[in-house]
Here is the input.
Amino acid sequence: MATAVGTAGQVTERSGIWEWMTTVDHKKIAILYGITSFFFFVVGGIEALLVRTQLAVPNGTVIDADLYNQLFTTHALTMIFLAVMPLGVSFFNYFIPLQIGARDVAFPRLNMLSYWVYLIGAVMLTASFFLGGAPDGGWFGYAPLSDRAYSPGSQMDFYVISLIILGISSLIGALNFAVTIINMRAPGMSMMRLPVYMWMTLITAFLLILSLPVLTVGLIELYFDRNFGTHFFAPEMGGDPILWQHIFWIFGHPEVYILILPSMGVISEVIPVMSRKPLFGYAAVVFAGAAIGVLGFGVWSHHMFTTGLGTVPQVVFSASTMAIGIPTGIKIFNWLGTMYGGNIRFNTAMYFAVSFLVLFTIGGISGVMHASPSVDSHQQDSYFVVAHIHYVLFGGAVMGMFSGMFYWFPKITGRFLDETSGKISFWLMFIGMNATFFPMHFLGISGMPRRIYTYEEGLGWDTWNFVATVGAFILALGVLFFIVNFFQTMRKPRTAPADPWGGSTLEWATTSPPPDHNFDVVPEVRDRDPLWYNRDHGISLPARPEHLHIHLPPPSYFPMIVAMGIGLIGVGLLSHLALSFVGVAVLIYGIWGWSLEPTS
Amino acid sequence: MEHQASAHHDEHPPTTIREYVIIGVVLAVITLIELWLSYSGLSHGLMISLLLIFSAMKFIIVVAMFMHLRFDSRLFTRLFIFGFALASALLIALIAMFNFDETRSLFQASAPPPAATAAPQDGGDGDNGEGPADGGALLVKGQPVAEYFSSTCAGCHGQNREGVVGPALTPASLAGDDALYFDTIKNGRPGTAMPAWGATGLSDADIDVLVTFITTVEP
Amino acid sequence: MAAGTHEVEHHTSLGVDNRKLLMWIFLASECLFFGTLISTYLIFKGQSLVGPYPDDILDIPLTSLSTFVLLMSSLTMVLAVYGAQHGRLGMMKAMLFATILLGVGFLGFQVYEFRHFAHVGLNLGTNQFGASFFVLTGFHGLHVGIGVAYLISLLFGSMRRSGLGKDRALWVDTAGLYWHFVDIVWIVVFTVVYLIPS
Here is the structure.
């Protein structure tokens, strides 16, 4: 595969593992991200299955209360920070340069640093299970429950440190992606000719860039509360637990859009291509996405209606929350309008994309219900909220990601995932997901609080809990089918042509899988759907020149060293502060070597 | 490709060394004026407004001239202003929500008592008439006692005094001697989260008001 | 963090350098970081249950001096950028050195102030003022420290035989953006924490 000129020659001489560890190729990093995040998707799924098994029948005894608390907390953290976000990053990595016609991202080594830091944070968070217990305060770690007084072990320290580390990784990645999309587009690709997926990526990147620092400050303050005697969130000394909630949700609500926007971008690619029609209302979809991004910063307190915000804030946040439903609705209609009258190919990618529309709409509607403070105060902390979040997160984000996997698999590997097996896994996941999460609406309405580890018989919750557990296992079976499909496909020969779906964006203009340097000649862009424009106007891509002089960045192990420095600082903050100083030294050495390393 | 790399090298901001030094002097002078202002004894509001104006001036001068935004790509300006404006908006929203307690107490006044509190039968009447009226008459540190309780004690004892981390503080739940409550507020309760409020500048008279409030006024 | 991101040459869509763009977006992110810290400080203003209170111990004249030091470091920094852009390398190195000295001076003031406060009984856990003050100014100080390290590495780089290479002006300019940002954060902190009376 490494046939490009430049330094690619050196790479092939090295051993396989070392090549993967030092690569700065965005496609390889994307694959690393993809595999790691899918692994954690499975881990998070197993945690969820344990939770559901415990709740299958009243007075369950599968796991005890303490382990249950750890499991539901790490399930949320794993799925959000270790699985769905990085899975999105994996696609970003692979397709940003390909869709905008660049040879790589703007900062290839920062890209690899982002992966390493993510891996360290992920391992740290998961390892906490074996080092005195995993975080058990819920994914939003409400103070004062997460303060030292009520959480004396090291569990919430793991939460704080690993989230800060994962935040660093996301921030580095987001900065890199934003610069790449803004500044490295192919000739002719104006902002309003960017593929919608790129727009959603850009908005996601900015949401991360602007919301992560807020969380970081909150986590720092929580860490200081727990370890250095401050009382930011402890009321007995004048602190205010509500402040933690504000800080967390100022990050936490944009985070919801960080999870869903990438999937919205994916289906904005899949639906037009599979309907063989340009996206209906490109500008509306783009501006709706931007509006979601901006409004997303003005709705956070709807998570806190029951804290006694006061009348004015309740009205304001209720109104802004309802308002954010509008751009979301606009997008749904645009996707429907794209399909309308199209010559639709219903393959697995399209199945997942259409299921996104259905399931995300259900989740969106229950979301708007929460916008009313009076309704919300009945649903707060009940299973209704659990149902809502899983419809948008699983029905929305995850189904969209699966659509992307089936859509882009031939581009990434040169092989088609099996369609029959794919459709079986789709139906299992679709039925399983609805069987699991729809009954939770009923459970919530009939008063079942979230995060209880067991419940008494005869409260009217028995049937639906059992159904939900059965659904969870059907869902897991669907994922298992996908995994089997993946391994079987990887043993098949590469048969995918450059453009198997008749796609419109630039990634389909190069071979499957693409060469190291992506494009022999960077294509010129004349339209929003450049390949369709070229097809309709009889323009063929320029031929490969005789001599390619493409300079690819050499591999580097400094990202790994810098990440190790960051990881050591984190480990030091969890154990002995002295270790942090070793981490700082490693970090300085890494950055120093990084900046002196020749890049040509 | 190389011409691209050198393209932006030639576009230096037109500012001369002399102009940079003058800007530096101006910044220093503004700082001196600010220093003088903070000792000037002007009225509170005027002083704060002037201080904010002067520091905004310094901020803008540094960003426009030293960071070259005046001469550089407009994109940089937009990006920075977006981040700065968002941070400012969040700051203002947070400060507003934490400081303007009228809305909070407005909400509290109309909230029904929680089921957990053993509310007496006349709760409906007493709630609307008695609570705010008494809370308005009694003052702690110059604040109506209900408001003081809401902002200072409610974090542990609940907005409706129903008890959260600390115990419930309603006439129904407080059967003990007033002196005990006085002592608890003044000196704290060792071994618990209850601080010694006497040490924080709460006067004995204020504590008396609080004791009367929790032992006689229904929430 | 942004040090040493010299990567492949690409054409750029907007004719601006990637590194500078990265720095500006990063600074937008930093606005939110300090915005949250300052919010925390303001929310806890007047919420301290025990002393020492801000009015008791904040030394405005002394801090004005350190503010002046940091402001002047911005002037020397911009002159270093000027030197780098106009090929006056001697001036660039001298001004980088002066900026580093002034930055270290500012940190010295801060260390003195922190020690003094600890001495008169204000610690992180003393009250809300202590907590929010130390965390806000401490993290600003951390940024100054990182800036000093950043500038030292540039100074060392410029003293190598190969100097900072053809991107010299950009390296210094980007570092300057970071340095000035840390300065304007201090402009806000100085006003909010020290000058505005409680």
Q: What stands out?
A: Chain A touches chain C through 55 residues (CB under 8 Å). The CA atoms of residues 143 and 244 of chain A lie 6 Å apart. Residues 1-13 of chain A have pLDDT under 50 and may be disordered. DSSP finds 18 helices and no strands in chain A.
